Amino acid sequence: LARLSQDQLESEERLRAQTSYSTALVSSRREPPPYGHRKAWVPRSLEDFGDGGAFPEIHVAQFPLEMGRKKKTSNALAVQVDAEGKIKYDAIARQGQGKDKVIFSKYTDLLPKEVLNEDTPELQKPDEEAVKEVSQLQWEFIHGTQGVAFNSGAKQRVIRMVEMQKDPMEPPRFKINKKIPRGPPSPPAPVMHSPSRKMTVKEQQEWKIPPCISNWKNAKGYTIPLDKRLAADGRGLQTVHINENFAKLAEALYIADRKAREAVEMRAQVEKKMAQKEKEKKEEKLRELAQMARDRRAGIKTGGEDTEVRERDEIRHDRRKERQHDRNISRAAPDKRSKLQRDQDRDISELIALGVPNPRSASEAQYDQRLFNQSKGMDSGFAGGEDETYNVYDQPFRGSRDMASNIYRPSKNIEKDTYTDDFDTLMQNNRFVPDKEFSGADHGQRREGPVQFEEDPFGLDKFLEEAKQHGGSKRPSTSSRSKDDYHDKKRRKE
Amino acid sequence: LLQDVQKHSVHTLVFRSLKRTHDMFVSDHAKSVSMNCIGIILVFYKSIFHSIGVALTADTTMHRNPSEGGIHSMALALPPSQSLLEGGGTRNSTLARKAPTMPKPQWHPPWKLFRVISGHLGWVRSIAVEPGNQWFVTGSADRTIKIWDLASGKLKLSLTGHISTVRGVAVSNRSPYLFSCGEDKQVKCWDLEYNKVIRHYHGHLSAVYDIDLHPTIDVLVTCSRDATARVWDIRTKANVHTLTGHTNTVATVRCQAAEPQVITGSHDSTIRLWDLIAGKTRATLTNHKKSVRTLALHPRQYTFASGSADNIKQWMFPDGNFIQNLSGHNAIINTLAVNSDGVLVSGADNGTIHLWDWRTGYNFQRIHAAVQPGSLDSESGIFACMFDNSESRLITAEADKTIKVYKEDDTATEETHPVNWKPEILKRKRF
After folding, report:
1. 309-348 of A, contacting B, C-beta below 8 A
2. How far is CA A192 from the centre of its chain?
3. Quick one: which of B313, B314, B312, B315 has its CA closest to B353?
4. Which sign, positive or negative, has the C-alpha torsion A301, A306, A312, A314?
5. CB B24 within 8 A of CB B424
6. pLDDT tens-digit map of B315-324
7. 0.80 exceeded by the pTM?
8. Is B161 left (phi over 0), alpha (psi -120 to 50) or beta?
9. Given CB atoms, is B259 within the 8 Å cutoff of chain A?
10. Whole-number Å distance between alpha carbons of A218 and A392
11. How far is A11 from A107, CA to CA, in rounded Å?
């Protein structure tokens, strides 16, 4: 290409030169006057020089082709031409380097070369000798022994290396705290990339990125259709996966609910049956009672002789019942206290109201208990505005002392209500020992228990003992009774 | 390597075969090609098309071997042209100005996995083989350096001392030293007689990614994430040169005895060839478009290869002239290794290994080894690979914490694993 263009230029010039001679009246090309006729002539313009250079015989400063003038520095490189006449375009790439530096700038440097045979000399490694020489030189270089200097023909020179004396008191000679920017790097090498591949329309389409439509911001206030707003949402791309354990849980709950209902139903049925049975039993009992009552009435109406006996029996029965009733109440009563004890704790106003006689000991003034421990007076009222205080009740329900006293605690003085004096002295007294004894009576024998048995004449003790030993197995009445109880209980459960 | 048979029309196949034959023989009589060739080609085309057109109706397998048919008919059709006859036969050395342009790739036996060594507790990042080929060293992300017996694969020794991933290891063949560098900015020299660290090379400002030893001079070169490579004197621990110029992490560095002695590849996608004496860049190769993570120097030839995510490129020394592209491994290439037989191995970040014929750039095998049981499938990646000194075993350091050893499959022959290679139809661009 370069050669062609140069040829072209030359041919054009020639043509121009020819035309200028033939057509122009006044030739723009001025030739300087030939040698010898230049006496009064001074070249003033560029064209006065023609093809040549400065005229040494004309003593005027001349600048043919503007060469030699003191120009302002410009970066422009002069066009250089190589040995074959081709313009060296890589002079730009070689600006800062030495002319020997290897720089690849041509397109041909990029092309793959022919595959060479292995034996070609270009591919062979340089000789070992050459290599050794270089290595030797380098070794000397690195280790500081320079080549032999001139010393009038001697092959070797003996050199003595001496360390230069350093003054121990000398401060450092150079300032090393200054930071200077790095110098410019060497000029960059031309980039020899192979031309990039052509991009097909299809590939370009693949790299298209759709514009971003934010779900939050809309700075310019564009109105964007809804389908574009949701385009990047990825709605249709995901399938929603629900864990199957949810279904399992629902099923389990359903089953459990059904089972519970069944159980409740069954229980209700059973209870109904039980209730019915109870009802029937009660009805039976009532019927029996009614029957008995009817019989008795009938019996009373018919029998007259036994009425008094019966009346007495009735009275006895009633009285027994009353006594039992009283005993039951006294045993099971929640207060579990005697009348006297109860009266002790009563407030004086209550005792007066009841008409109880004055208490024996009235050492100190007795106060109405209702006056104490009240949350009125100074302590009463608003409680400072606190609304979290729980002041619906001011006294505990029933009080703890009632609970404490509900629990059965047999005290040592249990006999005190029946025996007001010391139990022991009563036990020890000898009131029933006669002063004067009857003659012939047994005395001096200490009694062990209320009835003193004498020696067994008929061997009844032995008999009873034997009977006891075999008692467990050979008592039909008790065993049958226990069996009956067990069966009864079982029936009741069902 | 099995590839899907591309379905083309008969017309296309025939034309391509014609073109290939033309390209194959054009170099032998390059001077006389110009005008005659076009006419000749047209004649070829007509004759072959007629001949094949008749036969093809019945025989559909013909389309697989069009080149044979083409040559045959060409030979028949043109007895008179002498130069062509000469060219049509063998490659005449006196005639051929250039080497043949369509060389067939050399056959290499396929490689297969034969040992998996586990023992590391983190990614295995680097490998180095001892010059006597008895053992090899691996550096790992678990901060240890382990020495394994090469023959049996058993662990011999574990060295601790680094406080971060060990990124590079190198064994010296001139002294009993092992050198290691890590992401903790440390470069350590271990004495293998005492198994202790004897020297530290202090100066890097950031993680040190690779290390290499000069074969003839007692000098060590390391490269780092601080965009420099540093040259250290092994004995005095002095930082002889700091090779600046890269603008991003220097990922790989290689040393050789011949000029240029230091080559670095960086994440700024450039490769720099350095003049070790001056400490200056000799040439900058900017052909790559992505980070250059690995370099491999050919053991016999005066060439090297660089691996990057876009391509693997081959270059010539000493100026770094571009030779060719090895494309096809479309992954981030972490490591390259070259054999004397001309086998180039590229290991990638996704766990695949591609094996290439160095001279032609033909990919003859692809391996993706399974991960160690217990690892995820995504944990497959190769960080380093190296041939042992006998060049019969390939050792790879992987991301599933194992070391895999491969060897050539002895049972394979050219028939069982044929070279499935079709010459590239070069589209000559005018420039």
Report:
1. none
2. 57
3. B312
4. negative
5. no
6. 999 999 999 9
7. no
8. left
9. yes
10. 62
11. 28
Q: What is the dihedral of CA A474, A477, A483, A485, to 10 degrees?
A: -150
Q: How far is B197 from chain A (nearest CA, A)?
A: 24
Reported as a pLDDT band with limits 50, 70 and 90, residue B173 is very high
Compute the average pLDDT of residues A266-270: 97
Residue B62: band (very low, low, confident or very high) from pLDDT cuts 50, 70, 90: very low
Q: How far away is chain A from the Cα of B123, in angstroms, using its nearest Cα?
A: 34
* Nearest partner of B128 among B400, B347, B372, B389, judged by Cα: B389
Q: Which residues of B44-70 are buried (b: 16+ CB within 10 A; e: fewer)?
A: beeebbebbeeebeeeeebbeebbebb
Name every chain B residue with its beta carbon within 8 A of the beta carbon of A127: none
Phi/psi for B52 (5° steps) reads -75, -35
Q: Strand, helix or coil at A143?
A: helix
Report in angstroms the alpha-carbon separations of A204 from A93, A194, A201, B306. 34, 20, 5, 31
Structure token pair of residue A103: 């720089």
Closest residue in chain B to residue A123, using alpha carbons only: B302
Mean pLDDT on B12-27: 79
Token code pair at residue A61: 């400063």
Tell me the Ramachandran region of residue B329: left when phi exceeds 0, alpha when psi lies from -120 to 50, beta otherwise. Answer: beta
Q: Which of B63, B55, B23 is nearest to B41 (CA)?
A: B23
Q: Interior CA angle at A41 toward A38 and A47, to 5°?
A: 100
Q: How many helices (H) and strands (E) would you count in chain B?
A: 4, 28
What's chain B's length in residues? 431
Comparing CB atoms, the residue among A131, A142, A186 nearest residue B216 is A131
Phi, psi of B393 (to 5 degrees): -125, 140
Distant-in-sequence, close-in-space partners of A256: CB < 8 Å, separation ≥ 6: none
The reported pLDDT for the residue numbered B92 is 41
What's the full length of chain A, in residues? 494
Q: Which of A328-332, A442-446, B230-234 has the highest mean pLDDT?
A: B230-234
Among the ranges given (A18-32, A435-449, B269-283, B295-309), the one the predictor scored with the smallest mean pLDDT: A18-32
Is 70 exceeded by the pLDDT of residue A357?
Answer: no
Mean pLDDT of A150-165: 78
Nearest CA in chain B to A108: B431
Neighbours of A207 (CB within 10 A): 7
Distance CA A261, CA A259 (A): 5
B352-B357-B361 Cα angle (round to 5): 90
- Provide the β-strand partners of residue B169: B180
Closest CA to B385 of B352, B414, B410: B352
